[in-house]
Design goal:
360 residues, 26% strand, 6-stranded mixed sheet, alpha+beta, 7-stranded mixed sheet
Length: 360
């Protein structure tokens, strides 16, 4: 009996410790998940944050050429769909797909030299784009530009390969921008109880030759999946108030980006079911005072639906990318480059502006 007792006691102890280890492991895992969820749930960027440019400002300009483009974090080319838009996929099928998209984006960027690029959904290595660094690829492509980058969707305490870091960026010719700040806009409810996009606008100050007057160039990306565009309405109110205040100071205001609101009426052919157009809303007539100007190309679509892979004349397409300017800014040209949504679900929009009222 003693031998049997001695033999079973260590075995019982081993089983007991095994159970404890499992309990400890499960407890640690659940605790880690809770900490990650709480860290993301309670994170909120500073309402206003200043950003420094590496090259000192040395240029004053009364004319500017600007390109705005949502890059779709390198993952939303013509062969992609997206689950939040009614599709099935959370991310592209492979890293090769993303690299092909980025190659196409780079090919366009090397063909043009505006004063500024306003990018939305430009990403660092993230789960959504198979860890391809879109931002670094663009930086390497534009050596004569300096840039700032603002994360508007960033996970915290989540390790690679599951982490996400995507946001807004401004690329400007050296010595052009004197200062910039990011300003937090009203936010959507959190997804999955913890995650949400921290919508912001980047405000850039560029001197003109007119004493004490400057360009105010704003890069923004408004909400997309808010019910009845309620969050977009609140965001628009803040953008409007800030822009009008700057105009009243005599500054020259240009707001560009992805508005996620139809900037102009369009009627491009499509066969998309109405249920996939839930996010489509028009820019309200009262969004800005009547004398403010919408600058958009109504002849070429700037965005397509993502409920399925892109097929011309089947996917719904419209115009949500472009600019709004203060009354003292003249638009000389606006043109959407038709890239057939090959490498992003958006097409780039280029515009040229000049100050109008030198007496202000």
């Amino acid at each position: 009996m003693k031998k049997n007792y001695c033999y079973r006691t260590p075995l019982k102890k081993l089983k007991l410790w095994s159970r404890k280890l499992v309990i400890y492991a499960v407890t640690i895992f659940i605790s880690a998940i809770l900490i990650i969820l709480l860290a993301n749930a309670f994170y909120k960027p500073t309402s206003v944050r200043l950003h420094q440019w590496l090259s000192p400002q040395v240029i004053s300009k009364d004319e500017l050429e600007i390109i705005t483009w949502n890059l779709g974090y390198g993952g939303l080319g013509k062969d992609s769909n997206f689950v939040f838009d009614g599709g099935k996929d959370w991310r592209p099928k492979s890293k090769v797909v993303v690299e092909k998209n980025v190659s196409g984006i780079i090919n366009f960027l090397t063909s043009t030299t505006p004063d500024l690029f306003l990018f939305q959904e430009i990403a660092k290595p993230s789960f959504m784009n198979h860890r391809v660094n879109v931002l670094d690829s663009v930086v390497a492509t534009l050596p004569k530009y300096q840039h700032i980058y603002i994360s508007d969707f960033q996970t915290h305490l989540i390790p690679a390969p599951l982490s996400i870091d995507s946001g807004l960026s401004v690329f400007a010719k050296l010595g052009l921008v004197s200062s910039s700040e990011s300003r937090l806009l009203p936010l959507e409810p959190r997804r999955l109880g913890a995650f949400r996009k921290n919508y912001q606008m980047i405000v850039n100050h560029i001197p003109t030759t007119i004493k004490d007057k400057e360009w105010i160039i704003i890069n923004l990306h408004l909400a997309a999946f808010d019910s009845n565009a309620d969050v977009r309405a609140k965001q628009m109110q803040e953008v409007r108030s800030f822009a009008i205040e700057q105009y009243q100071r005599g500054n020259f205001v240009v707001i560009g980006g992805d508005w996620n609101l139809r900037l102009t009426k369009t009627d491009f052919p499509h066969t998309t079911e109405e249920k996939y157009l839930f996010w489509i809303h028009d820019l309200p007539d009262e969004a800005f005072p009547p004398e403010w100007k919408i600058v958009a190309d109504s002849n070429i679509p700037s965005v397509r639906t993502l409920h399925k892979e892109y097929v011309p004349n089947e996917n719904y397409v419209t115009v949500i990318d472009g600019f709004i300017t203060s009354p003292n800014v003249e638009n000389m040209l606006v043109k959407t480059k038709d890239l057939d949504f090959a490498n992003s679900d958006h097409n780039p929009v280029s515009a040229k502006f000049i100050v109008m009222e030198k007496s202000m």
